Amino acid sequence: MKALQAQGVGRAEAEERAAAVAAALVDGAAEARKARKAGKQADLRGMVRAARTGKPRPGYNVAGKRLRDLWLRDLLNDWFGRRLRFGLGALLLAAGLQWMFQNQLLTDKNPIVEQVRSGQVVLAVTTLSEPTGKPLGVAGLPAKPTDVVDSYRAPIAGACLLFSAVFVFGWRASVPAVAGAVVAVAGPALGAPDTGVMSPGMLSLGAGTLLILVGGWLLRK
User: What angle do CA 179, 183, 189 make, to 5 degrees?
Assistant: First the structure.
């Protein structure tokens, strides 16, 4: 911006051009990714050159996108992207840890510790996905909403959401992530079937984890 002002460009116009260049870099990077997938090459240099030499149409950036659309996209990404997944993940992880504390599962006497030590991996996975001990109880809250927190599925889903919040960008990734958290935690209560090979809890945990991590990654920004 200082270089433009040194060339005699007014401060307001310099700020507008600088914003246009920044927008061109952001939008151009997205277009370049799409072009590579289609086997083409995006003219990112041309977009930046246009931003430096001319002003975009009113209401549009140099990439030809409506500024209002960009504002909405940024709003969705800010509040319904990583922040939403981080908040929900932290809540589920905290609820899961509190459930473990109430059932005295935060000690070395936890059955999973012995199962892993003895090489009983299948039994350990089953223990992770099935109800153990009593459901979570929270003072001042009715029992029904917290009854779904009755296994390790809640803290596992919370940890997966936190991982997604750190490494996956964009609001679209939150759609399968939130759905996956619901499936992982409340799948059995919602009627997940017993396939004979996998119990409702194991099926819910597996499907929910895939939705959070794989589904979120595929729909990332």
Answer: 135
